Amino acid sequence: MSRSRKSGSVLLTLVALALACGSGEGAISHPATPVVLAPVELRDVEHHIEASGQLLAQDEAQIAAEVPGRITEILLVEGDRADAGAVVLEIDPERRKLEVEDARARLLEAEAALFEQKREEKRIRELYGKQVASQAQLDRVETEIKLARARLAAARSHLGIAQRALRDASVVAPFEGLIATRSVSVGEFVNVGQGLFELVALDPLEVEFSVAEKDSSRVALGSEIGVRVAPFPDESFRAEIT
Predict the structure, then answer these.
(1) 133: which residues sit within 8 A by CB, 6+ positions away?
(2) CA-to-CA distance for 227 and 242, rounded, in angstroms?
(3) Inter-axis angle of helices 135-169 and 93-129, nearest 10
(4) How many CB atoms neighbour CB 212 within 10 A?
(5) Nearest-CA neighbor of 81 among 206, 231, 201?
(6) CA gyration radius for the chain?
(7) Is residue 65 within 8 Å of residue 194, measured between CB atoms?
(8) What is the full DSSP assignment across the chain?
(9) How many Cβ atoms from other residues are within 10 Å of residue 157's Cβ?
(10) What are the pLDDT digits (tens) for 54-112?
(11) pTM of the entire predicted model
(12) Contact 89, 116 (CB under 8 A)
């Protein structure tokens, strides 16, 4: 009898504990965590590196005068676009044309003088063959021919120089670009080597910038980048690292 009562007492104690844990205000609730399932996908991850830099013109030149003279005409001013070979300003081309005409006249004189000396040399040589003219006369006329040929060569050189000066009197743009600055005005006298205007090529432009050392491995030759400038904040220009 005592053994049976002991077993019943243990059973009642277990039932009481179970009721205490399963009900009442002190019970702890563990809500379920929601789980979303999705298929695995491969995607490219882009790394963005931002850096500040400056725009540089690939071609930029300060054009200087190659002949002295007075500025007689300016055809392009600051901000104008100049094609390669376009005349920007004139340095007294009328004077250079007169110099070319004078050089041509001197060339004709030198040619005529040489022609006359050749005729004289032929006459003296014939007389020398007849023993009428002396050796000294023949030597003299041959020397005159050499001098006439030298004067002719000098006249041709002077004509070439005058023609070159005429071409240089019309100052042209050596490449296509923008007239950035102008240093002279109409009526001003300029000397050889004096600056006239600055020409800048705007196509293509180069961008010079620096990146942090930690990002240097992500930058390589041939990589494409986007360039933004202040006047066009909403536009990105494509460029390539060279």
Answers:
(1) 124, 125, 127
(2) 14
(3) 170
(4) 8
(5) 201
(6) 48
(7) yes
(8) -HHHHHHHHHHHHHHHHHHHHHSSTTPPP-PPPP---------PPP------EEEEES-EEEEE-SS-EEEEEE---TT-EE-TT-EEEEE-HHHHHHHHHHHHHHHHHHHHHHHHHHHHHHHHHHHHHTT-S-HHHHHHHHHHHHHHHHHHHHHHHHHHHHHHHHHHHEEE-SSSEEEEEE---TT-EE-TT-EEEEEE--SSEEEEE---GGGGGG--TT-EEEEEETTEEEEEEEEE--
(9) 12
(10) 888 888 999 999 999 999 999 999 999 999 999 999 999 999 999 999 999 999 999 99
(11) 0.66
(12) no
Spell out the residues 6+ positions from residue 116 whose beta carbon is closer than 8 angstroms to its own.
Answer: none
Compute the distance between CA of residue 30 and CA of residue 208 in angstroms, rounded to an integer. Answer: 60
How many angstroms separate the CA atoms of 183 and 134, rounded?
A: 67
